[in-house]
Write a structure and sequence with these properties.
single chain; 209 residues; mainly alpha; Endonuclease Iii, domain 2; Endonuclease III, domain 1; 2 domains; 12 helices; elongated
Amino acid sequence: MHDPAMQRKCQRIQSVLDATIGVPEVPLDHTDAYTLLIAVLLSAQCTDVRVNQVTPQLFARARTPAQMVLLSVEEIRAIIRPCGLSPQKAAAIHRLSEILLAEHASLVPNDLAALERLPGVGHKTAQVVLAQAFGVATFPVDTHIHRLATRWGLTSGSSVTQTERDLKAQFPERDWNKLHLQIIWFGRTYCPARGHDPARCPICSWAAP
């Protein structure tokens, strides 16, 4: 059952996002589904800026699963060390590349369950790859989106899972992929976690409960 007041609020939020952010760019540099998958995996607990500084060196050595498995886990780790959690991420990148070769003809699957079975690939990472590499309608919720959706009164903020459910219920499916990126960019540009003045924010000034 749609709440008319919430519907109006969501429409107004979309209008502000369209006016301030427009059509957003994918913040992680990539050339195909595989390089996107690796970049998103590396972005866990790391900034997109840092990932974009590290991936050119990695992809110069290996930009396909077949090339990646020729590197040792230690070689991968040495390159991606600035991204943090490098032992786990390097092992995951090497192993998922082996699995893509053995089970998926070297291709990244466009299936949520198959993606989530890959090492180092959680629900959010799988959804980002589906949305940005394959155009599948998903609403990946990262810390930015969880924070802003709670701040704007769109969800209780009890969990990332609940936030995803609430946002999918409140916004048109055709807009999910665009909104996911718009909210991330809006959070970075206008609505930071710290030192934020809600009264001057184009959305918090009227949407915050």
